[in-house]
Structures are given as structure tokens and as C-alpha cells.
Amino acid sequence: LEDILTVLVNAVEKVTDFQAVSGISLVTENGLSLTCAAAPSMPSETLQYFEKITIDELTPLGKCCQTREVVSIHINEQSDFNDFNLSSRALGLQSFWCRPILSAESRTVLGTFYLFHRERFTPLPDDIDVVNALSKTAAIIIERNNENLARRAAETALLENIESFNKQRRLYETALSNTPDLLYIFDLEGHFTYAN
Q: What is the SS3 assignment for the chain?
């Protein structure tokens, strides 16, 4: 998943002539926070900030997830996100914007696609269209990955249940075949299903 999302992030950076540093964060399983999934050009100092962001009104990413809308800020002028602004300003970043990644069917938030700019920048409709298209692609990839993980978990649980059932069956068959008493089992229609 990370490799494929990295390709999308690199595509955005290429479209901006490498004037932006971008990334994708995904909603964690508990739905309460975001974690960075792909940000190959992100400085490690900034990347630490994206490891576990609470989904709330205190960060632009959290606000983006809650409102399901594009959030755009000029870091030097915005007072709403103090911690975020301080860490971004220290790296010489001037502008930030993000867009939620929404699932195709249920429209739930799967994550965010975000971009930092070293210069003051307000996204134009064309910029938003490019990120929208890549966000839809990311949503499909993320949903497929989640479906594959759920399928694998279900298959594993099924195999464990089958093994447990077979183990119990062998135990009962061994116990019943070694008893000297006559045992027989009927089904609900009165037919013999087992006799030793």
C-alpha cells in the first residue's frame, strides 16, 4: 500500500514542479487519529508530526476530516493551529492545504492528501482538480487494500475454526469408537447418523 500511495504523492509533487512537499495520511483503525502512510519528500522533523494526529479542530488535517472539505492555511497568518504552525514555520514552509480522501461508496473519510508549499500559495481550481483525481484513485487503492486485509482475516479465522472443529471431531470419534457400550445418534428426522 505504501509503495502505491508514494507513486501518487510523487505525481502531485511532479505536477507542482517539485515546489510542494506532499503526503497521504490514513485514518487509524479506531477512527480517532491519522497516521502518515506516504510522504517520501517530507523532512523527518515534519514527518514526526504526522505520525499520530488526532482528528479534531486543533489541526488542519483533523479539521479536514471532520468537515470533509479542502482546508487551506497560510502558516504565518493563521492562529488556529499553533503547534502545527510552529513546526511548519521552523522548516521554512509558508502554506498548507489538504483534501479528505473519501470512500467511493459510503463516503467515509479514509485519510487526507496534503501539500506544503515553501512560498505563499492558495490552491487554484486546477490544483484542487488534480488532487481530487488522485484522491479518488487513492480511495480505490485504500478500499481494495482494506477489503484484502478483511478477507485474509476472515480466511484465517475460518481455517482456525475448521481446524478446531476437526480436532473436536477426532476426539469424539476416538472416544466413541473405543467405548464398549452401544452408542447411536439420530438426526432430527429419526435417521441414524452414527453408531459404533
A: CHHHHHHHHHHHHHHCCCCEEEEEEEECCCCCEEEEEECCCCCHHHHHHCCCEECCCCCHHHHHHHHCCCEEEECCCCCCCHHHHHHHHHCCCCEEEEEEEECCCCCCEEEEEEEEECCCCCCCHHHHHHHHHHHHHHHHHHHHHHHHHHHHHHHHHHHHHHHHHHHHHHHHHHHHHCCCCCCEEECCCCCEEEEC
Residue 94 identity:
Q
Residues contacting 29, CB < 8 A, separation 6+: none
Read off the pTM: 0.71
Q: What is the mean pLDDT of each run of 10 residues along the chain (196 residues)?
A: 88 81 90 89 76 82 88 74 66 83 86 87 84 90 90 94 89 77 81 77
CA distance 9 to 101: 13
CA distance 101 to 70: 10
